[in-house]
Amino acid sequence: MRNNLYLLLAALAACIPATAQSHPDALYDEAKVPKYTLPDPLTLQNGDKVKDARTWINKRRPEILAIYQEEVFGRSAAPPAKVDYEVVSVEKQALGGKAVRKLITLSLAGKKVNLLLYLPAEAKKPAPVFLGLGFSGNQTVALDPGVPLAEEWSIDRVTRKLVHKTAAEDSRGKSTQQWQVEKILSHGYGLATIYCGDIEPDFPGALAYGIRPLFFQPGQTMPLANEWGALGAWSWGLSRAMDYFEKDRDVDAKHVAVFGHSRMGKTALWTGAQDTRFSIVISNESGEGGAAISRRDFGERTKDLNTHFPHWFCANFSQYNDREDAMPFDSHMLLALIAPRGLYVASAEGDQWSDPRGEFLGAVNASPVFELLGKKGLGTDKMPVLQQPIMHDVAYHIRPGKHDVTAYDWDQYLKFADAQWLR
User: Fold this and answer.
1) Quick check: pTM over 0.90?
2) Dihedral, CA atoms, 292, 259, 177, 101, nearest 10 degrees?
3) Is 107 one of the annotated active-site residues of the chain?
4) 132-184, pLDDT tens digit by residue?
């Protein structure tokens, strides 16, 4: 009974927007941000300075990646020897003839994961693609009825119990503002989405329903302290989608952007850090544990993450609750792992819980690594005004509004992709 109650409360908490979970003692006054010193991404653990690209690639980057694997996201399962997939259907006249729609089932260690892929119908060559995870089934992204309804986890409002059921018919197309399918297609790009719950449902008690137990050793019942949390599982699933793209002749697998909002923004960053096949990484309001500097203690904090969402990270991460200054890392080092590929960090003025200035400073302090590798960082430590993007190889914008993904955000991401992919 107690376990069932815990699962219910945990699942309810996971359904509440993070901004609603801030504590009365959360810091929102810039004047009260503590003084802090960031670890230098260009100093090796032995104290030597990184002065050239070879040293970064062969020594410092592996050091930072190993820190994040051990202390934050956990170590993921090894990639499979081959991608196991089935193209379930191909609709050549989707969205009124604007798109080719493919439904693909990926088999991840035997677990079925559904990939929805829209490609521009008029494409004369393989199309670049934006890939991201959705908070609900793929039918919420689709503007047409050909996408099957997903099996989703939810809370029964009457019985207050966890239920696993087919999504409602009226859920079709409800997430199209966040994904801007037609706008993306009009630029000549494709869009691919996976429901995160296909990989692992997003609540603390969902371990048994996700992919992680499929990789347990005999007798193991829980991940080790340095093994992947749900963010790592979701990231691993995104890389398996990339495995598929490399097999699909209609996809330009050399030009794939991994995109994520909020917790999926954290996932996108971790995916791009581990998997260098992604040529662009986009973090939309990823906040604490993502692009925002943890040492600022502004808005959401490490303790908040590990209290409300203990399933997201590896268990080792909790040792930094109220001890951010002890971290041998901070967000700028995660962002630096994207270099020299394209990196876009975005914030919203009304999303103080995610610490917009902290997200900007994460990009600022990652920029020296991009510059070492011959790319153009932000070039300033002065935060831009609303809707005045800085768009170099490291890009940033802040817009009015709340924690969300808007058409304005997508306009900037498409401009950035045009520049990065020279289209």
Assistant:
1) yes
2) -170
3) no
4) 999 999 999 987 888 988 887 665 666 655 677 788 888 888 998 899 999 99
Determine contact, residues 170/306, Cβ cutoff 8 Å. Answer: no
Q: What are phi and psi of 356, to 5 degrees?
A: -55, -45
Q: Is the peptide bond before 384 cis (omega within 30 degrees of 0)?
A: no
CA distance 314 to 273: 17
DSSP letter (8 states) at residue 168: P
Beta bridge partners of 283: 260, 345
Tokens of 306: 């590990």
Cα distances from 262 to residues 205, 347, 411, in angstroms, run: 20, 10, 18
From 261, 332, 392, 403, active-site residue = 403
Give the pLDDT confidence score for residue 25 in this predicted structure.
85
Task: Tell me the per-residue pLDDT of 40-78, one tens digit each, with 9 for 90 and over.
Answer: 999 999 999 999 999 999 999 999 999 999 999 999 999
Q: Are the C-beta atoms of 104 and 262 separated by less than 8 Å?
A: no
332 counts as catalytic: no
User: Does residue 38 contact residue 293 with C-beta atoms inside 8 Å?
Assistant: yes
| Cβ-contact 260, 282 below 8 angstroms | yes
Which one from 76, 175, 235, 262 is the annotated catalytic residue? 262
